[in-house]
Write a structure and sequence with these properties.
The chain is α/β, with parallel strands linked by helices. The protein is about 45% helix and about 25% strand. The chain has nine helices and nine strands. It has a six-stranded mixed β-sheet, sandwiched between helices. Helix 6 links the parallel strand 6 and strand 7. It is globular and about 55 Å long.
Length: about 270
């Protein structure tokens, strides 16, 4: 099978500062200020062309960070990533300019993707129709609800027909009818053999739509396999997680970051 996405030992490090002064001092002096935080630690993952992979994990596990790296939005700190084809990220307000209207955002994003002005004009009405924004399309995006932003972002991304579609919680906001319409569009892409990454807390959506699951925990790969293999383990974990006290969750988190340090050798 042809490889669509190859993630090899990818880590992403951020610096956490207690005060803005520390951030400035870290830039202008030789001293090391701030605390290193690894959102991803030595992640390995491969998707074949046509795979539909769900990213799961509790909040802070690194799902959105990995999605953004695959989409080319943020760079990895170390490791390598190979994406064979044009990738489009659909997340709430991802890539949308608040000061511009919905229509202006359509034009800007499509022009940035290499479409001519004529092609953009031909696509525009279909995008507006799919988004169901109607009279709001000529209002500034900063006035949109999160659901409206998600609808506009989704409509643009599916209309440009990418090779790889990355959906990051974009269907968790807005109305159920639009979410169903979006899932139907994703099924069309699935039938066309496109590669898709689906990030969601909805286990039912994952089960009905995905074929494989990547389970991330504190920036590390916990498990990767078919939905039938991984999802029962994750659901069992979630039941245990929900029963944990605040102190137990904190202990579990500390143990997770200790494993991360051992993995990274830091």
């Amino acid at each position: 099978m042809e490889k669509s996405i190859i993630v090899n030992n990818v880590s992403k490090k951020y610096k956490l500062y207690q005060r803005k002064k520390e951030q400035l001092l870290d830039v202008v002096t030789s001293k090391n200020y701030g605390q290193d935080f690894y959102a991803l630690a030595n992640v390995n993952f491969t998707a074949e062309k046509g795979d539909v992979v769900g990213f799961i994990g509790i909040n802070g596990s690194g799902k959105s960070t990995l999605s953004n790296i695959i989409a080319g939005i943020v760079p990895e700190t170390s490791g390598t990533i190979q994406v064979n084809g044009e990738a489009a990220l659909i997340a709430v307000s991802a890539g949308l300019k608040g000061e511009l209207t919905g229509r202006e955002n359509i034009e800007l994003k499509c022009l940035m993707l290499g479409f001519s002005k004529k092609e953009v004009k031909e696509m525009e009405e279909d995008i507006i129709s799919f988004s169901e924004l109607d009279k709001f399309i000529d209002q500034p995006v900063k006035s949109y609800s999160s659901g409206m932003k998600s609808r506009l972002g989704f409509a643009i991304s599916v209309s440009v027909n990418p090779d790889i579609l990355i959906i990051d919680e974009a269907l968790s906001v807005g109305d159920k009818a639009f979410a169903e319409k979006s899932l139907d569009k994703m099924r069309e892409f699935k039938d066309q053999g496109k590669t898709m990454i689906f990030v969601s807390h909805s286990i039912s959506q994952m089960k009905q739509f995905c074929e494989k699951i990547l389970w991330l925990e504190y920036g590390m790969v916990k498990d990767f396999g078919t939905v039938e293999e991984v999802m029962p383990k994750y659901q069992k974990f979630l039941k245990q997680w929900k029963k944990m006290s605040k102190e137990e969750r904190e202990t579990y988190k500390e143990q997770g970051y200790q494993k991360q340090k051992e993995l990274l050798g830091v």
